[in-house]
Write a structure and sequence with these properties.
alpha/beta; 2 helices; Rossmann fold; 74 residues; single chain
Length: 74
């Protein structure tokens, strides 16, 4: 199975702009259609983009994030 590279970007409010994260992920080489995006708090994992990412990722795939706090926080 061929390894795929995905990205994940998240901002916690609609006032924040996810564009910087998308640009940096694309500069890393992640294709735009392979980036999951959420405009949601990091306190819950019940985020649409995160849930789709979990369903999509397979063993051996690469996930690129700009900071671990983009995945979630307590």
């Amino acid at each position: 199975m061929k390894q795929k590279t995905y990205g994940y970007a998240r901002v916690s409010s609609t006032d924040q702009n996810v564009a910087r994260q998308l640009i940096e992920l694309e500069e890393y080489g992640v294709q735009r259609n392979m980036i999951f995006v959420d405009h949601w708090t990091g306190k819950t994992f019940e985020r649409p983009g995160y849930q789709q990412m979990i369903k999509t990722l397979q063993e051996g795939d690469e996930l690129v994030i700009l900071s671990v706090d983009r995945l979630g926080r307590d």
